[in-house]
């Protein structure tokens, strides 16, 4: 179960990073601010993935 979830989480993080990159390009965000945008989004998505994994473990 954990192996499948890690693969799923990796795909989700990759997709959100590519979408964030498109957003930064489209909105012409400076490079020094892009680091903060990527960090913030990656932290929030990681929290979401960890909490959903915990939810799946305790519900099953």
Automatic annotation (TrEMBL):
The chain crosses the membrane at residues 6-25, 37-59. Keywords: Membrane, Transmembrane, Transmembrane helix. This is Uncharacterized protein.
